[in-house]
Specification:
The complex is a heterodimer of chains A (165) and B (309).
Chain A lengths: L9 H17 L5 E4 L5 E4 L8 E5 L4 E8 L2 E6 L2 E6 L6 H11 L2 H15 L3 H10 L5 H9 L4 H10 L5
Antiparallel strand pairs in A: 1-4, 2-3, 4-5, 5-6
Chain B lengths: L1 H21 L26 H22 L3 H18 L6 H15 L12 E5 L6 E4 L3 E5 H6 L3 H16 L9 H11 L1 H7 L5 H21 L3 H18 L4 H13 L5 H4 L4 H10 L9 H10 L3
Parallel strand pairs in B: 1-3
Antiparallel strand pairs in B: 2-3
Helix pairs in contact in B: 3-9, 4-6, 6-10, 6-11, 7-9, 10-13, 11-13
The chains are: A alpha+beta (165), B mainly alpha (309).
C-alpha cells in the first residue's frame, strides 16, 4: 500500500499531459482570419491613410487579425504586420456570425457572388452601352480617374492648412 | 506492477483525450457541411428524405435572399458611376485648369479620408465642370463633379470642403444607386445569376445593356432632375458636419455655404438636385456647436484665394 505512488512516476506525467492537452485544444480557436475583399487594399505602417504603406494586399487574400483600433484592423499578411482600414472587409461584420451559427451556406453564397460579379455590369456591358450611346464623354471620365493626390503631397497640404493628418 | 498498468491506462486515456480536443480546433475555419452540434454524436439520427429536401430548399432560398440584399457590387457601382459621369460630361466639359484641379482634389481627398467610406473600388476623383451654374454631382463609386459656378460661390477652403464632404457622403451612403428602380434591379439579379448564364449561354446579352441603360437613367434622374430625398440630404449633411470636424475644418462652413445659396433663391439646378430649404439650413446650424475659430483658417483661406478657378 503506497498511496502517494499514484501521483509519482507515470501518474504525474499523465496529469501533465492532460493539462498540456487542455491548453493546446483551446488556444488555436482564438486566432481570427479575414478575407480582403476590396481591390487595391494597402497595408499601412500606422492606423492612418497618411502613414507609410508597406505594400498592397490583393483582394481575396486571407490575413490574420492581431488587434483593432477604431476603424483600423492590425493584420499579418505574408509575414508583414501592418494596418488595414475596416472597409477592406465589407462582409466581415455581416457574414461571419450567421455563417458560423448556421454552418454551411457562407461558402456557397460566396461562389454565387463571384458568379454575379462576372455576369453583372461588366466592362463588356459598358462597351455595349458606349456603342449604343456614342455621344457620351467617356474620354473625360478616363481623365478624371487620372486625378490623384499622392500621400506625401496630401500630408504637406494638411500640415500647411492645420488639418488633421 | 499496479503503477505500471495504471500508467499505461493513463497514457491511452490521454491520447484519446488529446485527440478529442484537437479535432475540432484543426485549422478549418468554415466547414462546408453543417456542423454537428456535438463532436461525438451518440447515435446517427436518420433524416427523412422529404425533410432533407426541405432543408436544402430552405438553404437555397436563404442564399438568394442574401444575394438580393447584397444588391449592387462595388465594381458594378463603379461602372454605373462612370456612365453617369460620361453623361454629365457630355453636357458640360471638364476644366483643364491644372492648379484648380490639383487644389480641388487635395481638399476632396482630405475630406474623403475622414468620411465613413474612405476607400471605394477605384477611389475618389474630383473634377470641375465648365459651367457657371452652381451645382455638384456625386457619381456612384466616387467620381465627384463640382461646377466652376459653385466653387465661385464658396468664399474659402472650408466652404469648398463642406460641399465636397456632402457629396462624398452621398457616395458613402450609395444614395445614387439606391435610386435604381427596385424591380429593375431584381431583373438584373435574376438574369445575371449562374442559372441564367447556363440557360442562355455566354456572351453579353443585349438585354443586359438595356438594363444598364435604364439603371443609368434612374441614377441620372435623381442626381440631375428630381434630386435626392429630404432624408438623404439630411443624412449627407449630418455626415458632412462629422467629416469636417474630423478633418479639422470648420463644420460651420456647411451652414454658411448653404445659407448663401439659399438666400440667392431660385428653383432649378442645385435647388432641385439638392433640395435647399430653410429647414435644411436650420438643421445644419443646429448640428454645429460654436467653437473657437481655427488659427490656421486664415492660411487656408489665403491659399483658396490664390487659386484662379
Amino acid at each position: 500500500m503506497r498511496r502517494p505512488g499514484y501521483l509519482s512516476g507515470p501518474g504525474l506525467w499523465v496529469l501533465l499531459l492532460l493539462l498540456v492537452g487542455l491548453l493546446a485544444g483551446f488556444s488555436p480557436s482564438m486566432a481570427e482570419t479575414l478575407k480582403v475583399e476590396r481591390a487595391n487594399t494597402q497595408l499601412y505602417q500606422s492606423p492612418s491613410f497618411g502613414g507609410t504603406t508597406l505594400g498592397t494586399v490583393p483582394a481575396g487574400s486571407e490575413v490574420a487579425v492581431m488587434s483593432r483600433s477604431g476603424d483600423w484592423v492590425q493584420v499579418n499578411y505574408q509575414g508583414k504586420t501592418g494596418w488595414v482600414h475596416k472597409t477592406a472587409f465589407p462582409q466581415a461584420s455581416s457574414m461571419q456570425l450567421p455563417g458560423m451559427l448556421t454552418g454551411g451556406p457562407v461558402r456557397e453564397t460566396k461562389s454565387d457572388e463571384v458568379a454575379l460579379a462576372g455576369k453583372g455590369f461588366t466592362p463588356e456591358v459598358e462597351a455595349g452601352y458606349r456603342q449604343k450611346n456614342p455621344g457620351l464623354n467617356y474620354a473625360q471620365v478616363d481623365q478624371v480617374e487620372q486625378f490623384q493626390v499622392n500621400p506625401a503631397q496630401l500630408a504637406a497640404f494638411n500640415k500647411e492648412g492645420g488639418l488633421t493628418p | 506492477m499496479r503503477i505500471k498498468i495504471l500508467g499505461l491506462f493513463g497514457l491511452a486515456a490521454t491520447v484519446l483525450f488529446l485527440a478529442g480536443f484537437q479535432l475540432p480546433s484543426l485549422p478549418v475555419p468554415l466547414p462546408s457541411g453543417p456542423v454537428p452540434s456535438s463532436p461525438v454524436p451518440a447515435a446517427p439520427v436518420p433524416v427523412p428524405s422529404e425533410a432533407g429536401k426541405a432543408i436544402s430548399v430552405g438553404t437555397k432560398a436563404g442564399q438568394k435572399a442574401m444575394v438580393a440584399a447584397k444588391g449592387i457590387s462595388d465594381s458594378e457601382e463603379y461602372y454605373i458611376g462612370r456612365a453617369v459621369a460620361a453623361r454629365l460630361l457630355a453636357r458640360n466639359s471638364l476644366s483643364q485648369n491644372r492648379d484648380a484641379i490639383t487644389y480641388v482634389n487635395e481638399v476632396g481627398q482630405t475630406v474623403a479620408q475622414k468620411s465613413s467610406m474612405p476607400r471605394t473600388y477605384r477611389g475618389y476623383h474630383f473634377g470641375i465642370l465648365e459651367t457657371s451654374e452652381p451645382n455638384a454631382y456625386a457619381c456612384p463609386g466616387g467620381l465627384i463633379l463640382i461646377t466652376r459656378g459653385l466653387i465661385k460661390e464658396c468664399q474659402n477652403e472650408d466652404e469648398l470642403a463642406a460641399v465636397l464632404a456632402h457629396e462624398v457622403a452621398h457616395v458613402a451612403h450609395k444614395d445614387g444607386v439606391k435610386s435604381i428602380n427596385k424591380a429593375r434591379w431584381t431583373e438584373v439579379l435574376t438574369s445575371t445569376g449562374a442559372e441564367a448564364a447556363r440557360q442562355y449561354g455566354g456572351g453579353v446579352a443585349g438585354s443586359l445593356v438595356s438594363m444598364f441603360e435604364s439603371s443609368i437613367d434612374d441614377v441620372f434622374k435623381t442626381l440631375v432632375v428630381n434630386g435626392y430625398s429630404r432624408e438623404a440630404e439630411a443624412n449627407a449633411d449630418r455626415e458632412a458636419v462629422t467629416t469636417l470636424t474630423r478633418a479639422g475644418y470648420d463644420p460651420g462652413a456647411l451652414a454658411a455655404i448653404l445659407s448663401r445659396l439659399s438666400s440667392r433663391g431660385g428653383s432649378g439646378g442645385i435647388f432641385r438636385s439638392h433640395p435647399l430649404t430653410a429647414e435644411r439650413v436650420q438643421a445644419v446650424k443646429m448640428l454645429v456647436r460654436e467653437g473657437a475659430p481655427n488659427a490656421q483658417e486664415q492660411a487656408r483661406t489665403k491659399r483658396f484665394q490664390q487659386v484662379k478657378f
